[in-house]
């Protein structure tokens, strides 16, 4: 794999949902090691872990990753991923053209998706700024059918008003939609016919590949985002999620079909 594409794994030590989540053992190895190994086995020449913990540094290096020591000011639970990337990526030499963000909370990311995402963006870099993996939202959870509580009563998130495509597009382009997107439309505007519901997707968290230059423009995604639709994946953000991952590992101890 070209040296101008790096794998970047953020792994701060603080976690409220699960203590030391990023190094909690899953299948006998620390959680972040799953992403390190996935990157190395996918052919990345540079795998970089950003952390604020000396213990995490030792683990990352033991498993073959390079390390950036993150300042404590960027290790809080309110620090955005964009802030971390804007600080850390410019410190990497030689400067990469593309960054593959690998969250440690997605241990079972497939190698085929990694390679496909890279092929998609590298081959169409003149037309797109990033690739993210998404799963299709089931009709039952389509946001156009949902009802929410607003300051003036119950309403809906999206309505049948014109300009629907513009609103959907704004979610992925990063351009701010100026209309009342989340202010709550009257329930009478709710879509009731299944056939009228537009397709919607939700990021899975396993693939975030983007041009490095996006960061200087104030975005991870850029304005032109390519979607890589995959099946639902395990994303560990709670104790329940971790137990699901443990059970999944137990059922698929030989993971060749899930990480290749």
Structure description:
With 260 residues, this protein is α/β, with parallel strands linked by helices. The protein has 2 domains: 5-135 and 201-259, Alpha-Beta Complex (Spore Coat Polysaccharide Biosynthesis Protein SpsA, Chain A), CATH 3.90.550.10; 139-196, no CATH class. Helices cover 28% and strands 21% of the residues. The protein has 8 helices and 11 strands. The protein has helices at 31-41, 54-62, 81-88, 111-123, 164-173, 213-216, 239-251, 256-259, and strands at 5-10, 25-26, 29-30, 47-51, 66-69, 98-101, 130-136, 147-150, 153-156, 201-211, 225-229. The strands form 3 sheets. The protein has a 7-stranded mixed beta sheet with strand order 5-4-1-6-10-7-11, with helices on both faces. A two-stranded antiparallel sheet has the order 2-3. Strand 4 (47-51), helix 2 and strand 5 (66-69) form a beta-alpha-beta unit. The protein is globular, with a radius of gyration of 20 Å. 30% of the residues are buried.
Number of helix segments?
8
Number of domains: 2
The biggest beta sheet, please?
7 strands, mixed
Beta strand count: 11
Average pLDDT number: 85
Could you tell me how far the N terminus lies from the C terminus, measured between alpha carbons in angstroms? 16 Å
Structural class: alpha/beta
**CATH homologous superfamily designation of the largest domain:** Spore Coat Polysaccharide Biosynthesis Protein SpsA, Chain A
Low-confidence stretches are: 161-174, 176-183, 254-260
Global geometry: globular
Which fold name fills CATH's third level, the topology of the largest domain? Answer: Spore Coat Polysaccharide Biosynthesis Protein SpsA, Chain A
Output the CATH class name of the largest domain: Alpha Beta
Strand order of the largest sheet: 5-4-1-6-10-7-11
- Give the SSE order as H and E letters: EEEHEHEHEHEEEHEHEHH
The gyration radius over C-alpha positions equals 20 Å
Any idea what the CATH architecture of the largest domain is?
A: Alpha-Beta Complex
Our estimate of the beta-strand percent is 15-25%
Helical percent range?
Answer: 25-40%
